[in-house]
Amino acid sequence: MAADSVALHRATANAPGATRALLLARLRRNRLAFVGGALAAALIALAVLAPLIAPFDPNALAPEQRLLPPSATHLFGTDDGGRDLLSRVIYGTRLSLLAAAVVLALAVTIGTAVGLVAGYRGGFVDEALMRLTDMFLAFPALVLAMGVSAALGASLFNAMIAIAVVWWPWYARLVRGQTMQLRGEAFVEAARASGADDRTILLRHILPNCSTPIIVQMSLDVGYAMLTTAGLSFIGLGAQPPTPEWGSMVAIGKDFILDQWWFATFPGLAILIAVMIFNLLGDGLQEALTPGLRRR
Amino acid sequence: MLRYIARRLVLMALVILGMSAITFALTNVVPGNPARLLAGPHATQAQVDALAEQYKLNGPLLERYGAYMGGLLHGDLGMSVTTRRPVLDDLREFLPATLELTGAALLITLVVGLPLGIVSAMKPGRLVDHLSRGLAIIGVSMPVFWLGLILQVVFYKNLSLLPVGGRLDTFDFEPPRVTGSYLVDALLAGDVTLFGSALTHLILPAATLAVGSLAIITRMTRASLLETMSADFVRTARAKGLGNGQVMVRHVFRSALVPTLTVIGLQVGYLLAGNFLVESVFNWPGIGLYAVGAIHNLDYAAIMGVTLLISVIYVLVNLIVDLLYAALDPRITY
Questions:
Q1: Largest Cα span, chain B
Q2: Angle made by CA atoms B298, B277, A262, in degrees to the nearest 5
Q3: For residue range B139-184, what is the model confidence (pLDDT) as tens digits?
Q4: Which residues does B164 contact at the CB level (< 8 Å), separation at least 6?
Q5: Which domain holds residue B238?
Q6: Among A42, A103, A197, B35, which residue's beta carbon has the most beta carbons within 10 A?
Q7: Inside any domain, residue B302
Q8: CATH number at residue B109
Q9: Which chain B residues contact residue A269 at CB under 8 A?
């Protein structure tokens, strides 16, 4: 096991293509990653197939069926507009996954670019960029995200941007560290000797070798991104009602919690389960792919 | 040591200066018009202009930032358009409630999390360990605002054990203000009933706020202990004949605490941020509730004030953590 992981570590640092089979084998052996992966796939399928699975239109108002408790027709009950909560929770999967995807895509793009440049150039550029990231990291992320999304105006899209704005520094740090290690490797020297310019070296030789830690970090962050988006929606800074977004549904259900418990309970439960699935997957991927590398 | 603290404080000032510039710039490119929002839909343009003038909402960005920072040096954080009072007075009024809640949550985190982590590390792979791992995964995945609501249903509505929100019952009078913490102030006033009331109101929000950090501390303590227990110096300590208790207390705990301490420092940040959500659920009159109100009213000065205050607290806590390292680990000197 230990020798295996050392070999894998060396292999991934040098030639990712050749070790793909080894990585897949390790992934298959890791029960956590496997279960997490299967559940995550099911969640994505639920989001994609929402129109086929949801029994009702998530936005169809039916005032006469207002605040009905869970029953055979409405498994999760109905909300204050008589809308079917099960359908709304199913559609909510789409927004939650979409938000996490957008947040991470933005954060990874910015963070990777900053990290590559800082780690490769070194010197003043590195110093300046790293002090900037320190500034962001010296701050509770949720509070800053709230400030940013308050400034941009309340909408789900702005909330995603706000979260990405506070999230990229983690990736910048991660990629910078990797780049600094790789900068002096023989294969980078060889590429340079054969006349490759900086851009080619960064994109063709260094970036692919940073991909494993980036992917692991992303899988660990999906859950946090979903939680943060839902949190912003809960205090009214993200998705606006009547959008079927989980955090926003819990926010409205909050006013009914003591008498109509189902209203806030099911959307919140959906958040918990979805986040848990991705945390399982993230933990599994981390165990399988990067022995000895831990942030949290 | 003193030089190190001085250097850190200077760095901290720079970080906060940078943060303030970023937040100020962001909160001032807002599309909305706070003066219009404040004046109401029926106000005349002249009334709106007068309000904009009064709350310093006009003028070029840099000029306003300069004026703001100038005021900051004199302890003037501007006027809140929500409460129509100086932001500094608002923060003074609301901060103690937040500190009381955060402190209680941190206490729960440590009192439950550390022993749970220790027990898991002592018996890895046993039932306790599996349970604590399960709890940890649920804890880090938990939307706190939702957990708060569920606890309200269970402990207020179904069991009628604990109050639903607020810091005191409707008919309770606030204790004479000394520290701002109702628990402490009630005790200082010698009012045991009031102390009980404040305590029962604190339990649910504090437990809610603590859950995420509790999970992380438990896992971190376990991992750190397991790593230390297999270290060479621990084997040496055992080899020279020390009993298990002595090895654990004198060698393992002390060394394993250092990484846990870092995480505790970081958790203070999460707890402070979590206040925004938990205070909204439990109607807890702290700076989180104040900030959420300010956000809805485009109250720049208040948002800036809360942001700055939280960053100062966070940076200070992490400085204290770094200083504690030196006390715990003889290899670390500053």
A1: 86
A2: 115
A3: 999 999 999 999 999 999 999 999 988 888 888 888 888 888 888 8
A4: A258, B152, B156, B157, B282
A5: 94-287
A6: A103
A7: no
A8: 1.10.3720.10
A9: 146
Please indicate whether, in this complex, the C-beta atoms of A140 and B273 are within 8 angstroms of each other. Answer: yes
Task: Give a yes or no: residue B140 inside a domain.
Answer: yes
CA nearest neighbour of B167 among B153, B179, B182: B182
Distances (CA, A) of B280 to A85, B98, B284, B293: 23, 12, 7, 9
In a domain, B198, yes or no: yes
| Alpha carbon of B244: minimum distance to chain A alpha carbons (Å) | 28
Q: HSE of B323 in the Cβ direction (CA atoms, 13 Å)? A: 15
The domains located in chain A, with CATH, are 2-293 (1.10.3720.10)
Reported as a single tens digit per residue, the pLDDT across A244-271 is 999 999 999 999 999 999 999 999 999 9
Residues constituting chain B: 334
* Rounded CA separation B199/B168 (Å): 9
Domains: count for chain B: 1
DSSP A49-105: THHHH-SS-TT---GGGTTPPP-SSSTT-B-TT--BHHHHHHHHHHHHHHHHHHHHH
- Burial pattern A125-157, b for ≥16 Cβ within 10 A else e, equals ebeebbebbbbbbbbbbbbbbbbbbbbbebebe
**Nearest chain A Cα distance for residue B263, angstroms:** 8
- Name the percent of chain A in helix, strand, coil, to the closest 5: 75, 0, 20
pTM for this prediction: 0.86
Residue type, A161: I
ipTM of the prediction: 0.85
Residues 6+ apart with CB under 8 A from A6: none
Has residue B117 been placed in a domain?
yes
Q: For residue A135, which residues of chain B lie inside 8 Å, CB to CB? A: 15, 18-19, 22
Closest Cα in chain B, distance from residue A193 (Å): 41
